[in-house]
Amino acid sequence: LAIPHCDHGTAHAGGFKVDTEPQPWPAAKQHTEVRICFDKIGFRIFANATDLDIFNSATHCNDPVFADGDVFEVFIAPVEFVEDSPSWYLEIDTAAKSGALWGMLANNPRNKMAPNIGGNSSTGITCAAVDAMQTCETPCNTSNGLCACMFKCTGVSNFVHGMTVNVSSGTGWWAVNPLVIPWSLFPSPLIQNRSSASTPWPNWRLNFYRYDFPFKRPGSQEFDRSKHELSAWSASGAGNFHMPQFFGRGVLV
């Protein structure tokens, strides 16, 4: 994906596939289109989702939005080379309706599906460096599963370093317009060592996901809000979003 400066347009990522099926992955039941660009602040990500039953009960930032209804998710990390599989990455989840935002720094060096081949594991990220940035609600910890830390936030979607999101909706659709992820939220030296450079670090791995509830109850027109569909821009087929070797590749141009 060639990602331009926002002054020159956006890159398009669409055609989400069901992430729980083997290849060839079927198209998701409801359509999702993503556009992404960058500027001096960071990434700006826009998403448009068709949806006939929009819901999410989350009301505050860092509520577990992925357990509360319709969600659009972004996983993203700088890497030394675009072929690298990152062991550190950001996960940012946006709830439909309220726009409640959830954000964490993930540490995933022991992915069981494939070895990491460099990426962030070779770029000097440590919990000490993360804590020095004062972005986390609690001290960074890599021994408690995937979540190294949750990012500080207030209200519905106001995060440290200015990460925020706007959400809108109408009949049969909802949209993220935009999600702003600032450069200063990434702990990688690849980013922080270039903070004064005119061009940000070019090489990225990223993916876009959706929790959706498109199924109706048998013999009914009522949607089944207990049955979700997982879909992805770059699908793995495993129903597990935390598989960075399947993230798409992005280059800033």
Secondary-structure blueprint of this entry?
Layout: E1 2-3, E2 11-13, E3 17-18, E4 32-38, E5 42-50, E6 71-78, E7 88-95, E8 101-107, H1 127-132, E9 147-150, E10 153-154, E11 158-159, E12 164-170, E13 173-182, H2 189-192, E14 203-212, E15 229-232, E16 248-252
Parallel strand pairs: 1-16
Antiparallel strand pairs: 2-4, 3-15, 4-5, 5-13, 6-7, 6-14, 7-8, 8-9, 10-11, 12-13, 14-15, 14-16
Could you characterize what this model shows?
The protein has 253 residues and is mainly beta. The protein is built from two helices and 16 strands. Strands 1, 3, 6, 7, 8, 9, 14, 15 and 16 form a nine-stranded mixed sheet that branches. A five-stranded antiparallel sheet has the order 2-4-5-13-12, with no helix packed on it. The N and C termini lie close together (10 Å). Mean pLDDT is 91; it is low at 112-122.
Compact description:
This protein is mainly β and 253 residues long. It has helices spanning 127-132, 189-192, and strands spanning 2-3, 11-13, 17-18, 32-38, 42-50, 71-78, 88-95, 101-107, 147-150, 153-154, 158-159, 164-170, 173-182, 203-212, 229-232, 248-252. The longest helix has 6 residues, at 127-132.
- Major sheet summary line: 9 strands, mixed
Q: Assess the beta-strand content as a share of residues.
A: 35-45%
Give helix % range: under 10%
Mean pLDDT value? 91
Tell me how many strands there are. Answer: 16
Radius of gyration: 17 Å
Number of helices: 2
